[in-house]
Design brief:
alpha+beta; Aminopeptidase; 32% strand; 7-stranded mixed beta sheet; 5 helices
Length: 177
């Protein structure tokens, strides 16, 4: 089923054209309970502002934005690689906002996005990746299967979209040439 879905990098000239579709994807995920920094109810304006900020970061070469899309262009998922890091960490990047539309889940899309993150990170000269996710969620198991190493958990680190506390688990991955 995922063979019809392509995963690719959006470059600066096209990132802004995807803002509306990315906003819809974010809203779907937050409404589905994903703890990705946003609370319910999430407005379209809030989602648009977030993705405009991301597109600006892509244009400044501070982020790499990947999308998974159907042949007709509808988005199935996205993930970001935040490459702008402090001066003493030029080899590191953060993986952020792994989102897969509820209708597209359990089809290997997140795993394909993670593989593309690894490729893009290597191209960008990054050898250490870090991320965080909700403790006990499906994504935690996905990252472990993809070779990420669990660092630890912080209880009550964030809020779920409905306002309840959730723990956060931190992971790292060492990329080798």
């Amino acid at each position: 089923m995922t063979d019809t879905i392509s995963v690719r990098r959006l470059h600066a000239d096209e990132a802004m054209t995807y803002v509306d579709s990315l906003a819809d994807l974010l809203i779907d995920c937050v409404e589905g309970g994903a703890s990705v920094s946003f609370m319910l109810p999430i407005s379209k304006q809030t989602a648009l502002q977030f993705w405009q900020h991301v597109a600006d970061g892509v244009a400044r070469d501070e982020r790499i934005l990947l999308v998974a899309e159907y042949p007709e262009g509808k988005l199935a998922g996205t993930v970001q690689l935040v490459t702008a890091q402090p001066e003493n960490q030029p080899h590191r990047a953060d993986v952020a906002k792994m989102l897969v539309h509820r209708e597209a889940r359990r089809r290997g899309i997140a795993a394909r996005l993670l593989a593309a993150v690894d490729e893009e990170a290597r191209r960008a000269g990054k050898s250490v990746l870090v991320l965080d996710t909700v403790t006990g969620g499906d994504a935690e198991r996905l990252y472990a299967r993809a070779g990420w190493q669990r660092v630890g958990e912080v209880p009550n680190y964030a809020l779920m979209p409905d306002g309840t506390f959730c723990g956060t688990t931190f992971f790292h991955k060492q990329l080798f040439a």
